[in-house]
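Minutes, project huddle
Topic: does the predicted pose make sense with flavin-adenine dinucleotide bound?
PN asked that the exact inputs be recorded in the minutes so nobody has to dig through chat later. Recorded below.
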Amino acid sequence: MPAYDVVVAGLGGYGSATAAHLARRGLRTLGLDPRPPAHTEGASHGETRIVRQAYFEGPTYVPLLTRAYELWDELTDESGAPLLHRTGGIYLGLPRTRVFRGSLASAETWGLEHEVLSSDDVHARFPALRPPADVMGLWEPHAGTVRPESAVLAQLRRAAAAGAELRHDEAVTGWAVDGDGVRVTTSRGSYDAGALVLAPGRWTVEMLGGLDLPLVVERRVQHWFAPPSVAPFLPGRLPVWIWDRADGTSMYGAPSQGGTGDVKAAVHFSTLRPPDAWSADEVATTLAEVLPELGSRHTRSAECWYTLTPDEHFVVGAHPASARVLLACGFSGHGFKFTPVLGEALADLVADGTTRHDLATFDPMRFAG
Ligand SMILES: Cc1cc2nc3c(=O)[nH]c(=O)nc-3n(C[C@H](O)[C@H](O)[C@H](O)COP(=O)(O)OP(=O)(O)OC[C@H]3O[C@@H](n4cnc5c(N)ncnc54)[C@H](O)[C@@H]3O)c2cc1C
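Predicted holo structure (tokens), as shared on screen:
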């Protein structure tokens, strides 16, 4: 019998959630990561991640999000930490732009609570926001934020409490399918396991075992600005927001959190120049078109990394080499909100070989041929 039922490579957003689900099912789980818990070199840091259900990326994500919300609430209750914070969300753009159109389509398809607001309505409700007259807003009351660092720590605690062995000083260096299981080699030795979950974030390309996935790693910069008056930028006055500009730039931000007095904003995608080439001044100047009272007093920034697929959908499912090797990667800058539910799906696949969650959009083999 192998020493472990499953090894989880990477203990960031996905590895921590998956390890927690696996250990709770009683599987002998070994989690490995060369970096400390909730570190800042990967993709799961920066105080906030937007959580939303009127999903412009596609209505097929909505059932996963319904379950993700249940799991976030459960984790919030259990950990006692303020993980999921419902601030509401407003998605701004011309009616034809992807974020507005796609969010509306998802909301209508699934009967999600929402309202379409004119630019004047947006300003009347959220005084810090003053979009141009031709911009519309899709308001979603159940959107909000999760704190990624606290969420990773809560999932790791949950995994350890359920018996997982977690090591933060050991890297997976290779793996090979071995009979019914997997032999995993690491910076310290090797282990036989019944299954392997690969969740190494931006380092995935080094661990694909010859599989050619078209993953592109891109740097992003999260910025914080201190407005002259923070009052209109506090939760309750300002929701999370996404602004899809007609020039192919989309930006997002969150209300001021945790008493810091500063406000987060960042570039998600841009066709004008690479998103990480936008200076803080350029971000502030552009944002003055919708958040005129934000000002340009930049307080800090934090770099972070997207692992993009060509269609911006995730890669979650079996490696072609074996159903015992599962991939969780390519989260394309929008994966954090799904960590609990896709962690659950990955645990289903390890334990039962199947899951009730629809993972068809994330098929690792969709790029083949
Ligand atoms: C700036 C920014 C903003 C974002 N905003 C949002 C948002 O608003 N909403 C949203 O839902 N998502 C958002 N995302 C996306 C989301 O944060 C990511 O999809 C998610 O954090 C990815 O988690 P991960 O587990 O794949 O990667 P990570 O959390 O980076 O974890 C990977 C782990 O693997 C470990 N590792 C690396 N190599 C090895 C090895 N050889 N062996 C073992 N372990 C290894 C690393 O040390 C790391 O701990 C954003 C991302 C960024 C960068």
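Observations noted during the meeting:
- Residues 189 and 285 are 52 Å apart (CA to CA).
- The radius of gyration is 21 Å.
No decisions taken; revisit at the next huddle.
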